[in-house]
Amino acid sequence: MIEEDYYTKVEQPGYLKRVLYGDSVAEYSIVLVQKKDQKIFSHMKFHELWDYLLSLNCQVINQNDKEYIYLKDEFKTVSYDKENGTFLIETPEYVVRHYVNEELISLKVDIFRSIDVTKNHSMLEYEDLNITTPEDCKFLASLNQMNYSRSGIYRSSIEYIEPFEVQEKTKIDYSGHVYDLCIPKTQNFFANGILVHNTDSIFYIIPTNNPEEKSPEELWDLAVNASESINDLIIDYNKNTLLPRCNIDPEDNHTFFKTELLMSSLLLLDVKKNYAYKLLVKEGNVLEKPKVSYTGIQVVRSDSAKFTQDLLREMIENIILNETIPNENKKDKVIEVINDYRNKIKEHINNLNLNDIGIPGKWSKDKLIINGMKLYNQIMNEEVFSSGSAGKFIYCKFGKDFGKDINGICIPYSYDKDLLNEKLISNKISIDENKQWDTLLTTTCHRVINLVKKLKKGE
């Protein structure tokens, strides 16, 4: 049972709930749609589906920078009930979209099939259909090869899901709406024939006495009871108070909370979709060892230097999410780590071990990277880099003029240290230690540092 003072504590500072919105698929992604009174499914792109719903005079509701269309019986789609191993065909609770101007991740499973998703979209790994990220997913669940006809797809042709290995992951520039469906029972749907997860998530702290003395199973039971109690309260308020006041039939209201994750500690940065947590239990299954998961933070970004990733991991995993270190001591611990890494970068530069401190980049659009690669070709008198090449960027100081647009040099992943040292000296080039350090100590690092400075005893 929830403790008697839960509802008092949960409103106090330090116990406020946090809402982290699930993310979405590109507007040209295809969803299976069975329109009202039709027997077959047709392929519709999400933006076409949205326009179709508008043509039916469906109401658009704006909430938290997102647009929602709540559904009655306008169409049905296919989702997968993993508990029973069967397909579910029903009307989603709503369709939601919001506008983004950011990189998407394109996941290609074969020459005919791929899906473009936002970086934080929840994917489903085929083996156990557990939630994973686009960066980490390996095998995706896909609809079987169905019988297509000019008019659509028949129910009988949807038989099973099968695994498709992710062959390629590519970042693409995208400006436009991204879409999601809400199917409460299964929390998933098919886009481009690939099974993806849906839900918005609420992370909240459950005030409880001496949590360190409770087992993960006991804490999980508390979390489940809390979500069920919250669900009951919201349903009761909606049906008996809110909806009657709005002259809305309470029977049209459906609310569903499901406990998916239990974590012992959580880091939320002051920017949308940047957080990390130490996971104890996932969908009722206790992990053998707590696992730290990241969303948005540069630890999981391929364009970040390994040096930066290691620094963030050190601060987040070993200090901020470490429950054994009192909050009032974490600031000093972080300062120690920063000073240690400041000395490490000196060692890397002195020994010309540049792979870890170099900033990954490709010869594509970034002039900083392209010019750095051209400079390396010039001093080596060899075309090591060309269009599409990848390398590591290092800021430099110059004893002679190489041009106003030259700020540093790109180093290949494999290089001869002695030869590089000789060429740098003969061309009067030295590594700008301060500039490289300032760049590696990214905005995310500063956010983590500022956050730990605000931690107080007992929070």
Structural overview:
Helix content is 28%, strand content 31%. By secondary structure, the protein is of the alpha+beta class. The chain folds into two domains: 22-199, Beta Complex (Endonuclease - Pi-scei, Chain A, domain 1); 315-459, no CATH class. Strands 2, 5, 6, 9, 10 and 15 form a six-stranded antiparallel beta sheet that branches. The chain has a four-stranded antiparallel beta sheet with strand order 4-3-7-8. Strands 22, 23, 24 and 25 form a four-stranded antiparallel beta sheet that branches.
For the record, the count of structural domains works out to 2
Identify the CATH architecture of the largest domain. Beta Complex
Radius of gyration, whole Å: 26 Å
Here the CATH topology of the largest domain equals Endonuclease - Pi-scei, Chain A, domain 1
